[in-house]
């Protein structure tokens, strides 16, 4: 029994550490990326490419130091995951670039309803009525905030919508692929990050300048280069912790934790970038938060009920 308790404490400690790393890195990368877009005008897809390359380099160093051991995987089995990874990061960064941080964060809250929809209709997973009902205030709050955002623009909402759809697919596939291929987060990302980098290296020249003013290899100041590299290091921590958390919990659990990050990031956007907030936007935020809190309460209650039923079985 003592050994079992030690194992539970160790697993709980690892999960807590993973959540803390993801919390700090996720908040930091949103604020740093917004700063890079506003202060330096660094191209979006090129910044994403830097993130992928830094993630690949970070994982190579981890395996060289013996942190994990790579597992041989056929590229065809993770191609869709790599493509969705590109879309997930590019569209969310474009949403951040074209929206206020408040609208960007609220739009991301829609990932939970979309994931539930995917798991319901495609994977035949069932959710209770009360869980489904919590999606109403979450969705209503996002719509209210987006509609009354003083910086509302069609392009920003389009990117936000595409970002939510691709992110939802990506997060569902991450958990499914780890179980299907019997790999851990590092082993999967070790192959996927270089593949995603290769895809973007081919795509970037068609959409953004590469050399010269505004290009990834243009004349950037030393401060801009340092900020971009710093952003890449944070991206490595974000990507790694996303994989680890989803692989050890579930996509829905990860997103509910993400809603806590949304509150802190929203505050950071208001303080650092003076993002305006109308009364109607505040009502939208409160509406979404109520839905999130209800969802979390009901989800935890159901998990406890399930544990009680299992414990009562002979």
Give the topology.
Layout (H helix, E strand, L loop, with lengths): L1 H38 L4 H21 L14 H20 L2 H8 L2 H11 L7 H5 L1 H14 L5 H28 L3 H23 L14 H27 L2 H23 L5 H34 L2
Helix pairs in contact: 1-10, 1-11, 2-9, 2-10, 3-8, 3-9, 4-7, 4-11, 5-8, 5-11, 7-12, 10-11
What does this structure look like?
The protein has helices at 2-39, 44-64, 79-98, 101-108, 111-121, 129-133, 135-148, 154-181, 185-207, 222-248, 251-273, 279-312. It is mainly alpha-helical. α1 packs parallel to α11 (251-273), α5 crosses α8 (154-181) and α10 (222-248) packs antiparallel against α11 (251-273). The two termini are 19 Å apart.
* Global morphology: globular
Portion of residues in helices? over 70%
Mean of residue pLDDT values: 78
Give Rg in angstroms: 20 Å
How many strands in all? 0
Quick one: biggest sheet?
none
* Unreliable residue runs: none
First and last CA, distance: 19 Å
Q: Tell me the β content.
A: under 5%
The helix/strand order is: HHHHHHHHHHHH
Number of DSSP helical runs: 12
Structural class, by secondary structure, is mainly alpha
Describe the structure in brief.
By secondary structure, the chain is mostly helical. Helix content is 80%, strand content 0%.
């Amino acid at each position: 029994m003592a050994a079992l308790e030690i194992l539970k404490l160790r697993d709980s400690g690892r999960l807590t550490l993973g959540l803390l790393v993801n919390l700090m890195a996720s908040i930091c990368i949103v604020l740093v990326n917004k700063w890079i877009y506003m202060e330096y005008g660094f191209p979006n897809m090129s910044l994403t490419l830097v993130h992928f390359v830094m993630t690949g380099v970070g994982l190579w160093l981890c395996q060289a130091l013996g942190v994990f051991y790579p597992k041989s995987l056929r590229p065809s089995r993770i191609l869709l995951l790599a493509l969705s990874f590109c879309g997930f990061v590019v569209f969310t960064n474009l949403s951040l670039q074209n929206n206020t941080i408040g609208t960007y964060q609220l739009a991301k809250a829609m990932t939970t309803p979309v994931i539930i929809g995917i798991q319901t209709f495609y994977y035949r997973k069932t959710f209770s009525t009360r869980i489904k009902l919590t999606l109403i205030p979450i969705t209503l709050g996002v719509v209210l905030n987006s509609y009354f955002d003083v910086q509302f623009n069609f392009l920003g909402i389009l990117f936000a919508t595409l970002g939510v759809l691709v992110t939802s697919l990506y997060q569902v596939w991450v958990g499914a692929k780890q179980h299907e291929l019997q790999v851990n987060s590092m082993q999967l990302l070790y192959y996927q990050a270089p593949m995603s980098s290769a895809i973007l290296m081919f795509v970037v020249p068609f959409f953004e300048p590469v050399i010269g003013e505004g290009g990834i290899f243009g004349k950037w100041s030393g401060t801009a280069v340092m900020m971009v590299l710093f952003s890449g290091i944070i991206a490595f921590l974000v990507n790694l912790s996303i994989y680890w958390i989803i692989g050890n919990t579930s996509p829905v659990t990860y997103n509910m934790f993400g809603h806590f990050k949304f509150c802190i990031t929203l505050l950071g956007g208001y303080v650092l970038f003076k993002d305006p907030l109308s009364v109607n936007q505040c009502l939208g935020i409160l509406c979404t938060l109520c839905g999130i809190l209800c969802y979390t309460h009901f989800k935890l209650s159901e998990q406890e009920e399930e544990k009680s039923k299992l414990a009562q079985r002979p």
